[in-house]
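Course assignment 3, question 2. Fill in each field.
Student: A.L.
Task: Predict the tertiary structure for the chain below.
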Amino acid sequence: MLRSLIAAALLFASPAVAQEWTVDTEASSVAFVTQAFGAEVEGQFENWTATITLDPADLTGASIHAEITTASGTTGSSQIDESMLSEEGLAPETHALARFDSSDIRAVDAGYEAHGTLSIRGVEQPLVLAFTLTITGDNAVADGEFIVARTEFGVGNEGWGDTAAEVRVVLHVEAMRH
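Answer field:
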């Protein structure tokens, strides 16, 4: 009898399957907020992609890979955009993409943390992305943010002073399970 129960359990048990998500980039955003010339400056990146594998019930196979086209950054101020997209700034001609990679996603009291690596201008730094996640049926909404110290990535020069010393990146991601 015990053997029959074990056999039935093995037959009907299914291994955990990682859940793949397709990001709706039209409904999602990668925005940023910083200080420049004594005022708050808001902007966003228009072109980016993300590949997300995440099952909240089993985070062992979870991963996030995101790429941002650096030349797509805009604030609406030509002076700030020119500096941001210059060779001293994000250098999109030589560093077309910024990347975030994580295969270590953890559940925490406030939601989740993706422990990974952020690469800007070819400089890699460890990063913890804290985010909340709401899943309704096959739809997910994640919101998160993190702070980037631009000098840690070689962005800017002495003439920039305190301008955009810290940049708060604000993420809103809507995705569908497939």
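Instructor remarks: The longest helix spans residues 2-12. Residues 17-177 form a domain with the Lipocalin fold (CATH 2.40.128.110).
Grade: pending
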